[in-house]
Amino acid sequence: MPGTTILIVEDEEPILDLISKYLLAEGFNVITARDGVSALTQARAAHPALIVLDVMLPGMDGLEVCRRIQQESDVYILMLTARTEEIDKIVGLSVGADDYLTKPFSPRELVARVKAILRRSRAAAGAERKEPPDRTLRFDNLIVNPDTREVCFNDAQVELTTREFDLLYALAEYPGRVFNRDQLLERVWGHDFAGIDRVVDVHIGLLRRKLESDAANPTLIQTVRGVGYKFVAKRN
Ligand code: CA
């Protein structure tokens, strides 16, 4: 959280200084504005993560500033108000601030609220990131999904053994790249495999029977004479 930029909007100099001091001490970058119009300018220019926004401001008041900022960004807003009758409006739909504090407030409480909002936002962002990346390989007539270990060829599901699948994935992950038998043995069977490299040829043959319309003239898994094999297809 240190290094996060926070915009403080308050026209009362002593309060502005106090909040700045406490947030700076926590390692936040602090920028300030003393009226609504410069608050909008600052928010647009500096993209703060959070805005501490007083309701009572000269010119455009904090409620209007909050409404406008909410329309153009999803920055978090903590409002300050001296009037409890404004609270419903502040957190309600018409303004939609994320939190509020009533004046007078303790600066420690303000720091705690700021951190709580930022934690919440980070948790939400983290939840989105938890979605695992899609490692599925997609080609014109072939889909290989390593997570479900399903293979779809010409719109039909193909049953592969574990080794067949691993071999296909090893090749299809790098279309056009030539692998020799040792490389394929290591990637699919592992370092400890004590067998012979003939096992690769056998499994290539098995794969071709399942994935080539003419196994004798393969187009998908091609033999590179004297070297090994390559997978040939355009990725979608
Ligand atoms: Ca004020």
Explain this structure.
The chain starts with a strand and ends in a 5-residue tail after the last strand. It folds into 2 domains: 125 residues, Rossmann fold, CATH 3.40.50; 100 residues, Winged helix-like DNA-binding domain superfamily/Winged helix DNA-binding domain (Arc Repressor Mutant, subunit A). The protein has 8 helices and 12 strands. Helix 1 links the parallel strand 1 and strand 2. Helices cover 41% and strands 21% of the residues. The radius of gyration is 31 Å and the shape is rod-shaped. The strands form 3 sheets. Strands 2-1-3-4-5 form a 5-stranded parallel β-sheet, sandwiched between helices. The chain has a 4-stranded antiparallel β-sheet with strand order 6-7-8-9, with helices on one face. A 3-stranded antiparallel β-sheet has the order 10-12-11. Helix 1 crosses helix 5, helix 6 crosses helix 7 and helix 6 packs across helix 8. It is an alpha/beta fold. The site of calcium ion has 6 residues, from loops.
